[in-house]
Design a protein that fits this description.
Distance between the termini: 15 Å
Shape: globular
CATH class: Alpha Beta
Strand content: 15-25%
Helix content: 25-40%
CATH topology: TIM Barrel
CATH architecture: Alpha-Beta Barrel
CATH superfamily: Aldolase class I
Bound molecules: 2-phosphoglycolic acid
Strand order of the largest sheet: 3-2-1-8-7-6-5-4
Length: 247
């Protein structure tokens, strides 16, 4: 049974005080929290405090593949574990685009997570030019083949995939359900042809301007198991309400 997941990606938003207020609002909300697996990818500075409250899964937005050493400004998986963060985003398009993270570097991060049994959401998705050229499926295949599909089937339980078309992130423009269905079915098929039956158990999230008015139709797509939510996750109430958009 694939998990239904709602993952908030705050990016570089919210002060510490605002983050604490978000968490208390989340805590006190009446929504049945067992409807979906709620996850929160917060600025690293806040992870320890947020994770301590054990209200939802708390994870980091980035990690370095090395265990320790001279990597100024970076954080390792053991450091994240040591403050209670239990998952990480890998390959978000903003990391690929603004920090030049290559497929090879992302593969190293995937390997580090597998080695240390650390859960991760692997993000993939095409830019507008690639979409317009009709090359998006090949593009996504390449991203997954270069960084992810080599992992041992025994490690698949650590993995969630997020499909996020770059042209839909933070733009207010969402992919339509035909586009989403096509890509998610393609990813599912890649997983199944690589890993057999076990590939069917991996949750695949959609991300890119998901909000209360479009979530219901997106989450109804057969291969969509939830969302990676940026803008609409900054308000606790609007994030929680997305749980009601699952049928
Ligand atoms: P968005 O961001 O919901 O603001 O488009 C999604 C993401 O980048 O993870």
């Amino acid at each position: 049974m694939r998990k239904k997941i709602l993952a908030a990606n705050w990016k570089m938003n919210l002060s510490f005080v605002e983050a604490q207020a978000w968490l208390s609002q989340f805590k006190s909300s009446n929504t049945t929290k067992n409807l979906v697996d709620f996850q929160l990818y917060a600025p690293s500075l806040y992870l320890q405090s947020l994770a301590q409250q054990e209200v939802l899964t708390v994870g980091a937005q980035n990690v370095h593949p090395k265990e320790s050493g001279a990597f100024t400004g970076e954080l390792s998986i053991s450091q994240l574990k040591s403050v209670g963060a239990s998952s990480v985003l890998i390959g978000h398009s903003e990391r690929r685009q603004y920090f030049q993270e290559s497929n090879f570097f992302l593969k190293e991060k995937v390997d580090a997570c597998c080695q240390q049994d650390y859960a991760f959401i692997f993000c993939c998705g095409e830019d507008l030019e690639t979409r317009r050229a009709g090359a998006h499926l090949n593009f996504i295949t390449d991203q997954l083949q270069a960084s992810l599909l080599h992992l041992e089937p025994a490690k698949l339980s650590l993995l969630t995939i997020a499909y996020e078309p770059i042209w839909a992130i933070g733009t207010g423009e969402t992919a339509d359900t035909t586009q989403i269905n096509e890509v998610h079915a393609h990813i599912r098929q890649l997983l199944e042809s690589t890993f057999g039956e076990k590939g069917a158990e991996v949750s695949i999230l959609y991300g890119g301007s998901v909000n209360a008015s479009n979530a219901q139709s997106i989450f109804a797509c057969p291969d969509v198991d939830g969302g990676l939510i940026g803008g609409a996750s900054l308000n606790a109430q609007s994030f929680i309400e997305l749980a009601h958009c699952f049928k």
